[in-house]
Specification:
By secondary structure, the chain is of the alpha+beta class. It has four helices and five strands.
Length: about 140
């Protein structure tokens, strides 16, 4: 069990890593820092805004004593499954290596990259919020 003592939303004066998605929180971007007391003593965390939205949503939806940092995405997938929400992204088309010479390497069809961890967290949070009839979370791009 964890007791939350303090939550703040500062702007980063130096680069930080999000404790959930391990993406860099760039200088000048807002993030959420929390401090508390856990089973092992004092603990603190830094979360990007997308992952913080995911944590807020998941605490509203599930009865869990503890979720370990790095397991939020799996919990969101499991919650979507339990609520019968279609959340799987379509698989990207395969690129046939035999047709590659026809296009030339620079003009070959590109397979879109998978979404980043924090983008996927925000997408799943908004699917769950829509299912509950709540407003979607829109984060403005940070400069």
């Amino acid at each position: 069990m964890r007791t939350l003592l303090d939550t703040r939303s500062p702007r980063a004066r130096k680069p930080h890593l999000c404790d959930e998605c391990h993406e860099v929180i760039a200088v000048g971007h807002k993030y959420v820092t929390q401090a508390g007391i856990g089973d092992d003593g004092f603990c603190s965390s830094k979360l990007c805004l997308r992952c913080d939205a995911g944590w807020d949503c998941i605490w509203e939806l599930i009865d869990a004593e503890c979720i370990v940092f790095g397991e939020l995405l799996e919990e969101l997938h499991a919650t979507c499954d339990s609520r019968n929400i279609d959340h799987r992204l379509p698989k990207p088309p395969l690129v046939d290596d035999k047709t590659l010479p026809l296009f030339g390497a620079e003009n070959a069809p590109r397979v879109p990259p998978p979404p980043s961890y924090s983008s996927e967290v925000l997408r799943l949070v908004n699917l769950l919020r829509a299912d509950m009839g709540r407003a979607l979370i829109v984060l403005e791009p940070q400069k």
